[in-house]
Design brief:
Blueprint lengths: L5 H11 L28 H8 L6 H9 L5 E3 L6 H14 L5 E4 L19 H15 L4 E5 L12 H21 L3 E6 L8 H10 L7 E4 L7 H15 L8 E4 L24 E2 L5 E3 L24 H9 L2
Parallel strand pairs: 1-2, 2-3, 3-4, 4-5, 5-6, 6-8
Antiparallel strand pairs: 7-8
Helix pairs in contact: 2-3, 3-9, 4-5, 5-6, 7-8
Enzyme class: hydrolase
Pfam families: Glyco_hydro_6
Organism: Actinoplanes xinjiangensis
């Protein structure tokens, strides 16, 4: 990774961090100025599918419009040795001076209320150990990590004890990134503009330790427009001021080009959104969910499992039908 001068890093950070960030991180912790753009994973599921199916009429469009764009890679209980998996991914990005996007998705009782992406670590202690290894694998290399989608959006099926345990795990996880991955910007998931009111989400974020995160993330794996999420994010950031601080936010724009039709699980007629970039109504617009990967056995992805790449869904998402 590039090591900027202090003056250059401060100038870059001043341009990139919006006014809602009170108490900006030290210049040396900025992963943007240490890299030359976002990492494109050559082994993503759409890239692998296009490479394996060169004669398919959809392959060229999927390769150009999806596989060659910077997207996040997700890590969970399917990743095997998490230290090795994260270390290899971040190392590959660092070798080409690019910034990797990672999603940590392994809380016990993951997606407990949604029901399509269940699983996660087997216990609180197992999760604490897993996320510590995750952070240690990044080490001093630059990275962006989105922490635990869905974790604060729906408490309806959880007891207060479970909620308290979850908040504790998230808070300790953020502490691991602060201590073991000093060049990582960690964002705590905060649902989306159509889920929980801003004041409630700010309360949940504060309880889960967002004061120790770089910021919060919106719209992960959902479809609400960038404008809707930008407005919501600014409201959440303003509500956080009640606790004496505020934070910037990022928005998942991977599938929000046509907005939401009110459905979240493989709805038809959705379209790619703005590719990964700095700014655009948030600190960053990021492709966090891989376009074409199923949300579960539902909608136009009927018969599939969560995370399975569906080329026909990906192809239709390019053109919005």
């Amino acid at each position: 990774m590039r090591r900027p001068t202090l003056t250059g890093a401060l100038a870059t950070l001043a341009m990139l961090v919006p006014a809602v960030l009170l108490g900006a991180p030290a210049a040396h912790a900025d992963p943007i100025s240490q890299t030359s753009g976002f990492y494109v994973n050559p082994n993503s599921s759409p890239a692998a599918w296009a490479a394996a199916n060169p004669g398919d009429g959809r392959a060229a469009a999927i390769r150009t419009s999806i596989a060659q764009k910077p997207m996040a890679s997700w890590f969970g209980n399917w990743s095997g040795d998490i230290n090795g998996a994260v270390g290899r991914y971040v190392g590959a990005a660092d070798a080409v001076d690019k910034l990797p996007l990672l999603v940590a998705y392994n809380l016990p009782g993951r997606d407990a209320c949604g029901g399509h992406s269940g699983g996660g670590a087997g216990s609180v202690a197992a999760y604490d150990s897993w996320i510590a290894s995750f952070a240690a694998a990044i080490g001093n290399r630059p990275a962006v990590v989105i922490l635990e989608p869905d974790s604060l959006g729906d408490f309806n099926c959880m007891s207060q004890t479970q909620i308290n345990e979850r908040a504790g795990m998230l808070s300790r996880a953020l502490g691991q990134f602060r201590s073991k991955a000093p060049h990582t910007w960690a964002y705590l998931d905060a649902g989306n503009s159509g889920w929980v009111d801003a004041a409630t989400m700010a309360q949940r974020l504060n309880t889960a330790g967002v004061s120790g995160a770089h910021g919060f993330a919106l719209n992960v794996s959902n479809y609400f427009t960038t404008g809707e999420n930008s407005n919501y994010g600014n409201r959440v950031a303003n509500e956080l001021r009640r606790f004496g601080y505020s934070k910037p936010f990022v928005i998942d724009t991977s599938r929000n080009g046509n907005g939401s039709n009110g459905q979240w699980c493989n709805p038809s007629g959705r379209r790619l959104g703005t590719p990964t970039q700095m700014g655009g109504g948030a600190e960053m617009l990021l492709w966090l969910k891989t376009p074409g990967e199923s949300d579960g056995n539902c909608g136009v992805g009927g018969g599939s499992s969560a995370g399975q790449f569906l080329p026909e869904v990906a192809y239709k998402m390019i053109y919005g039908y």
